[in-house]
Amino acid sequence: MSRIFGAIFLLICFSITPIAHADFVAGDIQIVGFNSDNPDQIAFVNWVPLSEGTTLYFTDNGFYNSGNLRGGEGELSFDVATGGLPVGAVTVAELDLGLSTSGDQIFIGESAFPNSLDVAYPSADLVFGLNFDGTNWVTTATGTNDSALPPSLSTSIGNLDLGEAQNAIYTGPRIGLTIEAFQTEIANSLNWTTSTDAINLSAGGSFSAVPEPSAFLFGGIALGLVGAWRFAKRNWVAAE
After folding, report:
1. Where are the beta strands (DSSP E) in the chain?
2. What is the pLDDT of residues 3-37, one digit of tens each?
3. Global pTM?
4. Per-residue pLDDT reduced to its tens digit, 221-234
5. CA 141 centroid distance within chain
6. By the 8 A CB rule, do 170 and 191 touch?
7. What does each C-alpha distance from 163 to 111, 171, 200 come to in angstroms?
8. Does residue 216 come out as left (phi exceeding 0), alpha (psi in the -120 to 50 range) or beta?
9. What whole-number distance in Å separates Cα of residue 155 and Cα of residue 124?
10. CA angle, residues 234, 235, 238, in degrees to nearest 5
């Protein structure tokens, strides 16, 4: 009986059910393309399954070094449609943030960005930050085109600094890597292509990740336990 429970436990641990997240960590969602030419477009990939009704929030507001939003720019939300989004899906959304063609930032959060000036935003709610202004990440926001990098996004997969760009798309691999490896590739500016012309952000399609080595290990253990139980069951002899 303990073999059965062990196998079931492992199988349950590795089942993935989409949920409406309110507990993202930096890099769970990453931007993989944008157009600042009118209309503004953003392409993003989710590395956790998203259920329908999940709301993501976007802003081009910059951050002060205090952690407060500068305010006065665009704040919009995006609701995941019926059916949800599986891991690796790429979504292209037309979000009229009023992105500047001479440099700006885009931040993704899991709670609404306030539209007031110089107001706090929970650092733990930030999911990803993209800079495409030539000044790179600065010490503190000084205008509508620059921003400090919030500490919660300072992880290697939580932000991307492209430098000066008008339109850009990730052109690195989209198949054959683990999720962690894909996240690292996306956060590397060398894997991006920029243009002064609008880009087809649907090019390249979704991502197809291979399991982490640990998933193979534990999945094999689970299958092994199930097989051992079946073998033992076939060889049980009823007591007289």
Report:
1. 29-35, 41-46, 55-59, 68-69, 75-79, 90-94, 105-109, 119-120, 126-131, 159-161, 167-170, 192-195
2. 443 443 333 333 455 545 568 999 999 999 999 99
3. 0.81
4. 444 444 444 434 44
5. 24
6. yes
7. 27, 17, 21
8. alpha
9. 13
10. 100
Contact predicate 2/8, CB 8 Å: no
What does the block give as tokens for 46?
């989710």
Helix 213-234 to helix 2-13 angle, to the nearest 10 degrees?
150
126 contacts 25 by C-beta, under 8 angstroms: no
pLDDT in tens, 159-183: 999 999 999 999 999 999 999 999 9
Tokens 């962690």 locate to: 180
- Which residues lie across from 131 on neighbouring strands? 105, 161
- Give 107: exposed, middle or buried? Use CB within 10 Å, 0-12, 13-18, 19+: buried
Pick from 165, 134, 137: nearest CA to 151: 137
